[in-house]
Amino acid sequence: MEDVMVTMQRTAERQTLKGAVQVEGLSVVYRRKNYENRVLDSIQLSIQPGEFVCLLGPSGCGKSTLLNVIAGFLKPSAGYVLVDQMPISRPGADRGFVFQQYSLLPWKTTFQNIELGLKIRGVPKAERTERVHEYLNRVGLYKHRSSYPHQLSGGMQQRASIIRALVNSPSVLLMDEPFAALDAQTRHMMQEMLLGIWDDLKTTVIFVTHDIEEAIFLGDRICTMGVHPGRIKSEIPIDLPRPRHFDDTLSKEFLALHRQVFTCIREETMKSMEESF
Amino acid sequence: MAVTVSKPVPTRWFGRIGDVLKTLFWGNRPFRRVLALVIFFGGWQFLCAINFDFFINFQLIPSPWEVLFATIDFVTSDPWIHFRSSIQRVFFGYLAASVLGIFLGVLIGWFEAVEDLFLPPLELLRPIPAVAWIPLAILMFPNAESGMVYITFIGAFFPMLISTIRGVESTLSDTVLIRVGQCLGANSWHIFKDIVIPGSMPSIASGLTIGMGNAWFCLVTAEILAGRYGVGYITWESYVTSNYPPIVMGMLLIGLMGALSSWAVGRATNALMPWRVINKQGGG
Ligand SMILES: Nc1ncnc2c1ncn2[C@@H]1O[C@H](COP(=O)(O)OP(=O)(O)O)[C@@H](O)[C@H]1O
Ligand SMILES: [Mg+2]
Prior knowledge:
By secondary structure, chain A is α/β, with parallel strands linked by helices. In chain A, helix 3 packs across helix 4 and helix 7 packs across helix 8. Chain A has a six-stranded mixed β-sheet, sandwiched between helices. Chain B has twelve helices and two strands. In chain B, helix 7 packs across helix 9, helix 8 packs across helix 9 and helix 11 runs antiparallel to helix 12. The interface between A and B is medium-sized, with 27 and 21 residues. The site of magnesium ion has 3 residues of chain A, from helix 2.
C-alpha cells in the first residue's frame, strides 16, 4: 500500500518536470547506389518526463540510430522528435549523451572534462568548481579529479562520462550501451549507482542495451525493437518496486519478466541472425 | 599440515656474473645508446683500415681519425662564427616555417574553401627539392642571407604543413570526439579550440620534429649561397677544393646539430602534451 503511494507521488512529481520526449513517425533510410536500407521505419514513441526507458533489441536493429536522431547527430528521413514540445534539429546540452566507447577527452583531466559543458555555457569559475566537485563526490571520483583519462579504469571513465552529461542538468540523458564494455561486477555497481543518481535528479533517461537483465533492472518500461525494418515491437512496463538492488534480480517477479521479455525479442534475434549469414 | 618450502636454487657463479653484466650494461639504456655509436664508428674505422672495396669503395673515404683531426683543427680556429651563422639561418627558416606551416595547415584542415584555394599550388611546389630553388632564391631575395633562410624554410615548411593538415583532418574524422563536444553545447569555435587543436597536437609535434631535421638537411644547399661562413659552407667549400676530411666533419656536425635540435623540439612538444603515455616493447 505504501509502495503504491510512493509510486503515485513520484508520478505526480514527474508530470511537472521537464524531459518529455515524443518521437513521431520517425524513419531513417540509408541510401547506397541502387539499394535502400530502411534502418528505422515509422517509429512512434512517447516518453514521460522523468521516465527511465530502456530500448532493447538485437545488435543492428537501429537502437543507436534512433538515439543518434534524438541526440540530433543524425537527420531522419521522415518524421520528427520533440523534446518538451520543441522539435530537435541539432545536438545540444539539453540532451546529455553517454557513449559506449570511452569518450573522455584524453587531453583534459577528469575535472576539466566534466567542467567543459559548464565552461562552454559561461558559468563562472567558482560555481563551476563547486558543481563539478559535488558531482565528482557523488560518484566517488573526487580524488581522481586531476587524473587524465588513461589513468582511470573503464568503470571510472564511464562514471565520469555520466556526470559530464548530468552536470549540465539536461532534460534527457541518452545512453548508448554505456556499460557494455565493462566486466560483470563493475557493470552491476554502475547500474546501481546510475539508479541512485537518477532517483535524485529525476532526469528522463533513454537507455539502449542488448542485455535483457540490465533493461529490466533499470527501466520503468522496456521498448523492444525488431529488425528489418527497425520498429518498436512491444512495450513492457516494469513495475518492480524502487529502489532496486542487485538481489532483486533473483526474485520471482524478475525472472517472470525476464522470460516475458526474452520471448518478445527471441524471434527478432533469430531474424537478425539469419540475415547476417 | 605439511608445508613444503622450496629452497632457493643456488645459482652458479658465472650465471650471477651474467646477471650483473645484464643489469649494468644491457639493461642500461644510455649504455645501449653509446654502444650503438661505438659500433658505428668502430665499423667505419675498420672498413677504412682494411681498404674495403667491394662495390662500395672505402679507399678514399676519410677515416674517423682523420675526421677527428680535421675537427680539432676546425674547433681550435674560431669555429663560433660558422656555428652562429648556420644556427641563425636554420632558426629563422624554421621559425617562419612553423608559424606559416601550422597556421596554414590548421586553416586548410578546418575550412574546405581554404583547402581548395591554397592546397593545389602548394602540392605543386612540395616535390621541388631545395637545391632547385637556388637560382630563384638568388633572383628573388635582396641578399644571400635571406635567400639562405628561404631555402631552410622550404625544407621545414612542407612536413609541418602536411602533418598539421593530417592531424586536423584525423581529429575531425573522430566522430565520437566531435559529438562529445556537440552534445555539451559546443559551437564551432569551442570544438576547434578544445577538441581539434589538442587532438591534432601529436601530429603537429611530429611535423615540428621532422621539420627541424629537414631544415638542417637543407643547410648545405642553402649555404652554397654563402660567401664565407657556415658549417654547410665549409662542407661545400671543402668539396670544391677536394679536401675530404672536413666534408665528413661538416656532415657529422650538421647531423649532430640536427639531432640535438630535433631532440630539443621533441622534449618541448612532449612537455606540451602531458596526457600522453608511450609504452614501447621491452620498455621498463
Ligand atoms: N552510416 C551508416 N551508413 C549505412 N548504414 C548504416 C550506417 N550506420 C548504421 N547503419 C546500419 O543501420 C543498422 C542499424 O545500426 P545501429 O543503429 O548501429 O544498430 P544497433 O545500435 O541496434 O546495433 C545496421 O544494419 C547498420 O548496418
Ligand atoms: Mg549500437
